[in-house]
């Protein structure tokens, strides 16, 4: 009788231990499934957020291209004015102020002050990098 009781207690402990291990394994699988679903939900949120940012990025690039076009046109105009001033000064070599009068109309200082180098590096670069998910180093802009 005593041997039967000991065998019954050992079997009962084995069954309880096996039941505990099965419940623990099931709970671990459930937690893994939740983590898996959460990870894919986070990826979906990030992709949706990036997709929503694409129109902003396109508008920023358009504004940047417009500014670059305007700057290029202003540089071309300034160059043409400088060439014209040099030609006018070469036509009248006796007049020392001819070249200065021609070059005072050239807006080089305006071009230097309004060129948004910081916007180019910090604005568009960061948006591109953030949209692509890449860490980017922002360069410090030194005044010329």
Description:
The chain is rod-shaped and about 135 Å long. The model is unreliable at 131-144 (pLDDT under 50). Helix content is 82%, strand content 0%. Helix 1 (2-91) packs antiparallel against helix 4. With 144 residues, it is mainly alpha-helical. It is built from four helices and no strands.
Summary?
By secondary structure, the protein is mainly alpha-helical.
Structural topology:
Blueprint: H1 2-91, H2 98-103, H3 108-113, H4 117-132
Helix pairs in contact: 1-4
Number of beta strands: 0
Which residues form runs of ≥5 with pLDDT under 50?
131-144
Overall average pLDDT: 75
CA(first)-CA(last) distance: 100 Å
Tell me, what's the shape?
A: rod-shaped
Order of helices and strands: HHHH
Largest sheet: none
What's the quaternary structure here?
Answer: single chain
- The number of helices is 4
Structural class: mainly alpha
Nearest-angstrom radius of gyration? 37 Å
Helix content: over 70%
- Beta-strand percentage? under 5%
Annotation keywords:
mainly alpha, 144 residues, disordered C terminus
């Amino acid at each position: 009788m005593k041997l039967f009781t000991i065998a019954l207690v050992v079997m009962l402990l084995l069954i309880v231990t096996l039941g505990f291990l099965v419940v623990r394994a099931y709970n671990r699988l459930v937690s893994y499934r939740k983590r898996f679903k959460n990870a894919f939900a986070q990826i979906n949120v990030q992709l949706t957020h990036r997709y929503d940012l694409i129109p902003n990025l396109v508008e920023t690039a358009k504004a940047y291209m417009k500014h670059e076009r305007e700057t290029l046109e202003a540089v071309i105009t300034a160059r043409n004015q400088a060439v014209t001033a040099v030609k006018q000064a070469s036509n009248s070599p006796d007049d020392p102020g001819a070249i200065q009068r021609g070059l005072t109309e050239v807006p080089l200082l305006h071009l230097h002050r309004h060129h948004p180098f910081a916007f180019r590096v910090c604005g568009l670069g960061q948006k591109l990098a953030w949209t692509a998910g890449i860490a980017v180093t922002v360069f410090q802009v030194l005044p010329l």
